[in-house]
Specification:
Elements: H1 2-11, E1 19-25, E2 29-35, H2 48-51, E3 74-76, E4 80-83, E5 89-92, E6 99-100, E7 106-114, E8 120-126, E9 135-137, E10 146-154, E11 158-166, E12 169-179
Length: about 180
């Protein structure tokens, strides 16, 4: 084993890092599980013409929900938090995340954390043109506080102001929706 490690070290090649965890399984004892970490997703830089379209996108403030690890994409105000997409832009493209609804609207997952009790309500409108209002799919089953999954449904690409409300608390941000379909 030591010889194999030295051979890899001397060859200049490296083995992928493997994460190991041990779990106590009743009746079996300590069971070790290993997994190779998956690469972080990469983001293709968007053309300057898209990024300089005049949409005043909100930059994430890094405010992290209680109990979560810091994330530069986190955005919140102490009562409601979400994660914003890179460059303030939600990108819809074949093979990428999100989906196209039957009516042509663009749907993308957004995650929220509620620091106050109540149901999450989400609304939004397009800032740079006429469009029907933003829709949201907010599934039940997440309780009255804490994490909440959702999908934001943009009727058209463009510059969108989104507001989330829980009781008297609210969080507003501006994001750009871009479609390559």
């Amino acid at each position: 084993m030591v010889l194999a490690i030295l051979m890899v070290a001397c060859s200049g090649e490296s083995e992928p890092e493997v994460a190991a965890t041990a779990t106590l399984v009743a009746g079996v004892g300590l069971v070790e599980r290993t997994s190779t970490p998956q690469p972080a997703p990469t983001w293709t830089p968007l053309p300057a013409s898209i990024l300089n379209d005049g949409c005043p996108v909100t930059e994430a403030n890094g405010a992290t929900p209680p109990g979560e690890d810091y994330g530069a994409s986190h955005h919140g105000n102490g009562s409601i938090w979400t994660g914003l997409y890179p460059d303030g832009t939600v990108v819809f493209e074949p093979g990428g995340p999100g989906s196209v609804e039957a009516d042509g609207a663009l749907s993308m997952k957004f995650f929220w954390w509620r620091g106050v009790d109540g149901a999450l309500l989400i609304s939004g409108h397009r800032l740079d043109g006429d469009a029907p209002p933003l829709r949201a799919s907010i599934p039940d089953g997440y309780g009255n506080r804490g994490f909440q999954a959702s999908a934001l449904i943009f009727p058209t690409p463009g510059c969108w102001e989104v507001t989330a409300r829980v009781g008297e608390a609210s969080l507003t941000f501006v994001t750009r929706g871009v479609s390559f379909y």
